Automatic annotation (TrEMBL):
SUPFAM superfamilies: Porins
Signal peptide extent: 1-29
Membrane topology: Multi-pass membrane protein
Major site of localization recorded for this protein: membrane
Superkingdom classification of source: Bacteria
Protein name according to UniProt: TonB-dependent receptor-like protein
Amino acid sequence: MTKEWRLPRTLLLTATILAAGALAVPASAQDVPAAAPAATQDQATVAPAAEAPATDDTIVVTGSRIRRPDLESASPVAVVDSQQIQSQGIVNTQDLLQKLPQVGIPGLSRTNSNFATSGNGIATINLRNLGDSRTLVLVNGRRFVPGVAGTSVVDVNNIPADFVERIEVVTGGASAIYGSDAIAGVVNYVTKTDMQGIIARAQYGLTSRGDNPNYTASITGGTKFGEDDRGSIIVNGTYSKDLGLLSRKRGISAEDCSAAGCGPQSYSSYSAQGRFQFRNGANESTNAGGYASNLFSFNPDNSVVAGGGTGFNRNSVRRISTPVERYLAAGAAQYKFSDSVTAFLEGTYAKTKSSSQLEALALDSQLDTGVGYGIDNPYIPASIRQQITARNSDGIASNDVTSIDFRRRQNEVFSRSNTNDRDTFRIAGGFRGDISPKWRYEVSGVYGQLKDSTSSQDIDITKYANALDAVTDATGTIVCRDATARAAGCAPINLFGYNTASAAASNYVQSDVPRSVEIKNTQFVANASLNGSLLTLPYGDVQVALGAEYRREKSSENWDALTNAGLNSGNQTPDTVGKFNVKELFGEIDIPILKNVPFVNSLSLQGAARYSDYSTIGTVFSWNAGGEYSPVQGLRFRGNYAIANRAPNINELFSSASETFPPGIQDPCDGVTAASAGTYANACRQIPAIAAAVRNGGTFQYTLADIQSINGFDGGNRNLQEEKGKTLTLGAVIAPDQVRGFSLTVDYFDIKLSNAIGIIPRSTSIQQCLLTSEPQFCNNVIRYDNTGYIKTVNAQNINISDTKTRGIDVNARYGRALGLTTDDRLDVSVLYTHTLRYQTQSDPAAPVNSGVGNLEYGAAFRDKVNATASYRTGPFSVNWTTTYLSPMLDTPRDEFAETSEGLSPEIAAHNEIASRFYHDVQVRARVGEESKQMEMFFGVTNLFDRKPPKLEDNVFYGSITGTTTAADVYDPIGRRFYVGAQLRF
């Protein structure tokens, strides 16, 4: 049972309004809001699961370790409670938190991770758009094992929604309270700890187009035991499955799109039947990379056709959202031996399965295998063989054909789509109790482990080269030329046309083991804390919290041997293994200055500090200071200033240099001629090979293949230092007695992140090398000496970037009985963030980019609103939620253009994204008494089927591959229905 706190009327009013209804409301206070959606918790109302409510009704709120009898916090705390989760049919809590104005674009979600090399379907949280790694996710005030290799990022898939009592969100630096990773703030999941009986729930969802089905079943049970109910236990089991959504199921993403528009003109030249081209090896230096002029391909009946043939529509097989299947188990138990000793234990286990679906690999003989077809290959079609014979016998050496290159989709050869299997478990336990009437202690330990296995089919490049080199033996059978390869099972591969590669050849060229990565994260945390009254001043007790913490983390990322060696179709990737430990001391103080004197209802000061000693970077000091002033009841001013830190994670420190082929590389020298004007053109002509290329009216020009062949190496840096964040919050809380059921909070925030870990963007290195010739840029850019084309653009982690953001949070709530029936009630909640500034600078030489209203530079909405209205009467209730996103600009991915000039009018018009409203509604009906009750519910998400903006692939920055939109910002799926039932007994 939830305890009814007996507080002075004004405190009860304010606390209940701002705590999102986590407190049971006394029957006499009918105008005070009860449980309601996503609200600001400026006076928290329920102790975290790790804390037992004290006899004097003091509690601990996220953002502080001090129990506060006045239920007030110097930092704004937003709350989502279990009723809000239920009233929106939420299966994954990421979906609900994404609607909060404080939450930015997630680094990983179902709709942006299909093309990730691992981690498909992971769900993360990003406060203030400062990055997932700067958002600390806790469970019951304690750390949770990371869900992404080498990071601190938590996968909230592992936390069952039906086991959550509430989610508390503190934005701004909280490192002094909780340690590293809290620069942007803290998201604390408070789970259920006390329940009598069983609750079973089932839910089914489907879109209005009959696709993307999802299923959820959950059962939660609890009981008390022992003398005077000293012990309690609660467990939950949850199964959920989301089948994902294919790109072809939506008109906006059914076809490949580019600057030329959507449709066949934008299809990939790496087609299913192949595109082939004669090569003249003797004239490589003078003949545009060695290619002769002829191209040929195949019709659907595999007859030869001149030219490149029909392209391949990659979006026909891609996904908008990845499927995710979850098996979850969670439990908590506690037993009170005496007032001074209570033992507690909590555990979580999650098995998550997900997968990606990508188009088959686009294999290029020159870029990938290094080998094309020899002109004696027996698979060459007769008509092509005749052309080769004619060319090679005409006496013109430059017209000879020495080999045949190809670009071909490997549709029938192998699938490169990932399958993911993740196992996560966490156990936390300890003891707490009272040392004296004014002092309490807690000691706890946490151990967590993630095992993540990702695998996909792949090819062995050495075997592929053997299979390409075929001859006809004495019996007329086509075989591999190399006898050793034949003895090892080599089967020749025919790529000339649709579905021509045999099963034997496809099996042979595949690697003996899949392309795979095995990830293991482990975390151990030991914590001891003491809090209570240090001394008594005239206006109250000085409250303090003191403690120490030890944390050890380790992460390993083990790739298969071919990936390590770069001998399969992917980039060469080394393994990463790293670990660190940190020892910390922390303290917090709350000093009452004045209370109940003229012009001062209350005045207090707060402060906190944490000293950390890392095995990797040495010592770090974080602190914050703040205060609260209430001139009269119902009005309170608050402010807080914090210095927060984030230590570099394992990946940032220890990852070895790994090869990548970065997309979107653009060289300012591309298209330069001897007559080109401008700073870039002048700098380009200083490069000898480019100067030679533009002599005599020539043009320095890249082909698509040249651009796609540009590689780079990314890697960690063991000399990294901590990131630093400075946060200022100033606000007011208004809850007047004259307007019962109403509260308003207004908070100004200003966050400055400096010394942030990042890389010099490859585009910046290219540009600044041309403009400044500085080694810090030019060392990253390697060009071919003979052609001037960019060969490699490297990147390494360094402390170099800055981010600044500031804005205003406004949270308003109003609730009251309308009197239309004997027991009706209306609750309204509005959360609004107005962003004044969001600026990023990747390095001191780079421009300062404004992300307010701009997808390319951070996607910070100028205005974002989440409003909820709930009405209930008797056994019926209805909940309506509206989310507003202000207009946005998506700058084209042209690093050298400041406008949409040069784009087609249709595409240029898409650059300006209109504002959007999303509406969700749910109706519920209850049957029976509270102890034995059935609830049935029906809901609609995106009620009016608001479409996402159309953002062509490879044209707009915000477009996520396969979705033709910013699928992690806007809803790419459309209207969705769900129906379910919940049984309590």
